[in-house]
Amino acid sequence: MSEDLPVLIDADAMLGRHPRRDVGGGTAAELLAAMDRVGVSGALVTNMTSWLHDPARGNRGLLGLVAGEPRLSPCWVLLPDTCGEIGAGFAEAAVAAGVRAVRAFPADHGYDLAGPDVAPVLDALSSVRLPLLVDAGQAGWPVVEAVARAHPRLRIVVGGAGYRMLRQIAGVLDRAQNVYVGLADLSSHRGLEWLVERFGAGRFVFGTGAPYRDPAEAVTRLLWSELDDAQVAAIGGGNLRRLIGQEVRAA
Amino acid sequence: MNRLAQAVWERRPQTVTRIVDAHAHAGPYSVFFIPDPDPAGMLRVMDRCGVAHAVLSSHLAIQLDAAAGNAATAAIVDQAPDRFSGYLTVNPWQDPEGELARWGDDPRFAGIKIHPDLHDYPLTGARYAPVWEFAAASRFPVLTHTYSGSPYNDLHHVDEVAARHPGVTVLAGHSGVTPLGIDQAIEVAKRHERVILEVCGSYNSGADIVRMVREVGQDRVVYGSDFPFIDLRMSLGRILFSQLTEEERAAVLGGTVTGLLGGRGA
């Protein structure tokens, strides 16, 4: 891509097979090929194993999957440590392993993201300044707001917003300045433009939901938006770099 | 990267091919907030991307009142007849014969829209009989909502009405929506040559659309967006960046539906 074109960094991608959709083998090579097809330069990736089988094993395995892949950066999945599954030093271990963000699946992993069980983990993430990624369908907007209020230094990126939630999204973005919205399936008609006009481009983070979602959706939605080039550049990668406080590797 | 995808990356409207959106709506919808749901906001998005034409049914028609909603659809077409044409919405509970008689000869309408899920009435039900009769006589295509697993518009319902009415062109809206539904829609389309796969929905992908075209042919798959229910660019992007050939892409984006409309509207 030309240096004049925006650099897109996908904050919402995964490696691995999916049990309810043919996404291929879910290998790094396949993800990189999909990224090249649409022009995405780099990605934060979560291991499907961490989501849909064994978070601790998936987190450990992810480091091997992205080793030697300079365009892919690891994103671990958290759990409450009430059963000793992730260990007391989870956040510090994540930083030491080069993890750039942490993702939560409270609905699928059976805990309350706003409850006391996971609060120490979220506090620890705040301390090491790792952002939290969570899909709207995993927590719901009232829970997102409660977590944002309880952990005001925690930066929360909510993905999978769909097209039916602007009434709730706008309220939460207005009241909770540490909440950001991901672009994967942010699909209200002119919703991106409407939200950016009200809350600024700084509150939005490019993501695709690949491989479950076709990354062409988010690429087309952002690049063919009515936003100006500076806004597109911020959403495409600049905001994520700021959130993680360091460079995300890109091609 | 193909020329359409290049236009996306260069952030300019595409001028490569004539894009016709076969599945559009207009206006507000009570279940959720839609920014700028009226024709001006829709044209703004179409112009941004280079979409020439959209065939639409007003949200008023499908959600609440077919009579008032069809009048709203006709009024929208009047505002930009070169950019919009209408689907005549039939609600099985709201005088199907009367709506077909009132609008059937109106040049602002190019097809029929039915939404069994919204009206809690099966696609195979007797109240839709006037639709099939009218469509067979007029050659209007019938766009029906489909959703795998629905009690009202599952793919087996499409299979049944296509078998009963082999002369009617049925656009399977959303092609079943889910990964399973897409597989089922392809199977139904293979059995009935006048079942056309329309590709908008929250779970479709470019790879699925390529598979549809390979399985049933480029003359059986059409682009739709569902906008402003869903943003037009979601479905469009899947096609633009897919691995269709240029000929296939042009057919899916507009050539096929233009032929199906038979000179009406688009």
Automatic annotation (TrEMBL), chain A:
Residues 92-245 form the Amidohydrolase-related domain. GO terms for molecular function: hydrolase activity. This is Amidohydrolase-related domain-containing protein. It comes from Nonomuraea terrae.
Automatic annotation (TrEMBL), chain B:
It holds the Pfam family Amidohydro_2. One of its GO terms (cellular component) is cytoplasm. The keyword Hydrolase applies. One of its GO terms (molecular function) is hydrolase activity. The keyword Aminoacyl-tRNA synthetase does not apply. Keywords: Hydrolase, Lyase. InterPro entries: ACMSD (IPR032465), Amidohydro-rel (IPR006680), Metal_Hydrolase (IPR032466). GO terms for biological process: secondary metabolic process. SUPFAM superfamilies: Metallo-dependent hydrolases (SSF51556). Residues 46-256 form the Amidohydrolase-related domain. This is Amidohydrolase. It comes from Nonomuraea terrae.
